Amino acid sequence: MDQKSFEKKVVGEFAASYVKDGMTVGLGTGSTVAFLIKKLGERVQKENLHIRAVSTSSSTSELARSVNIRVLDLNDVPSIDLTIDGVDEFDPKFNGIKGGGGALLYEKIVASASDYNIWIADASKKAEALGTFRFPLKCCHLGISIPCGSLKQWSCLPRCAIAMVTYISLTAITTLLTAM
Questions:
Q1: Does the pLDDT at position 97 exceed 90?
Q2: Which of 120, 110, 36 is nearest to 80 (CA)?
Q3: Which of the residues 13, 62, 89, 107 is marked catalytic?
Q4: Which residues of 62-73 are buried (b: 16+ CB within 10 A; e: fewer)?
């Protein structure tokens, strides 16, 4: 296992220690979260840990179910106690950017429904200043000129693409903006 994978494993497994019996847990998406889910699965098996999960992607749902974590739809839970997800970039003051991957809409909705959020990352995600990579912004097609205008005021060059996007049980036409 290389250094980066080792760091992801250590961070993901440590984050699993914050999950307590009876919690409803939001599970993010990505390679670091995969280590979290596998560790939670071990805890379900060895400690008889009873948790419910709300997932941010179909791949996360599949992995969670494969290790006997009960996955529910966000509409079926009154609240989420804790969400754990990877962060795409963080600075020395621990400000961060989420949303660099394909599950950004569900990640943001689940995080917003959570009492607490933990971001996990390996050292490669640390940046001296935020904004070292392009990231998508999801917007409703209605009124798209408004966020495009704001981005232009910030010297960004938005490019729009209309795409059919499928997340867990939601299929929608989504407008993706990429700011440069």
A1: no
A2: 110
A3: 107
A4: ebbeeeebebee
Q: What are the structure tokens assigned to 151, written together?
A: 């981005």
Residue 172 half-sphere exposure toward CB, CA atoms < 13 A = 13
Residue 134: helix, strand or coil by DSSP? coil
Phi-psi region of 96 (alpha: psi -120 to 50; beta: other; left: phi over 0): beta
**Does 107 participate in catalysis according to the annotation?**
yes
Higher pLDDT, 105 or 68: 68
Determine the pLDDT at residue 107. 85
Locus of tokens 């974590």: 69
**In the chain, where are the structural domains located?**
3-125, 135-179
The CATH code for residues 3-125 is: 3.40.50.1360
